[in-house]
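Re-run with default settings, no changes from the original entry. Doing this only to confirm the output is reproducible before filing.
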Amino acid sequence: PPPRFPSAWAHRSLPIQGRPGTGRLQGAGVVAMRTEGGVFTCEEVEEAANQCGMTISINFLGPYYRAVIRTLPSPGQEKGKAVGFTTGTMLFDLLRQDTMRVSSVNNGNLVSRERLRKLKAERDWRMPTVYGVSLVLGAYVVAHAYGSGCTRAELLAIKDDDRQHAVLVRHYRRLGLEVIKILNNDIDCVPDRLIWGGEGTLMGGDIRNMMEKHTAEIDRLRGVVQSQSD
């Protein structure tokens, strides 16, 4: 896992101020048409998050990053965190996602689903996409990695529980990742398990392809409220 030196992290936060929960961007104009083949940027993902009543910040320590998504208004409640590092400026052009945690998600059991339904009815923010908060948080991270010269992304769908693991693998596949290797108790998996810190399914994908896959969805989130009110 990446080292933790909080005082040394360089901070970057570009929230676009809006009214929390309503998803209405104050003074927002028409979302600009994207050029053919273009993909989203970190700033556009921040705008999409704001439209959903959330904001994203990112801290750096060398190649390591820690991105956090919170509710508006600031400082807000933390709803997700991604920690990892990029090697686009060093070797391999790789984004390695060590941690991806999102609160209030369906982990595959009945109690989780019922709790999630109740929370959705009570919370003052919304994420109107089938991919949930992890799409916006993940999109921000891959946009940062792409801008840093990375071409591939890898993460481990951890296997703490069989049902939850199956949900994670299915979700990451929908996001555009593919299975690289199953990490289990076999002796040949020991090096990878030492690197990743546990058992599970090692997954990876081409960053540009993933961005192209989800650019339309990010654009929809950026303009979803306006399109509904027009």
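Strands lie at 10-13, 18-19, 24-25, 54-61, 64-71, 78-86, 94-102, 152-158, 178-183, 200-206. The mean pLDDT is 78.
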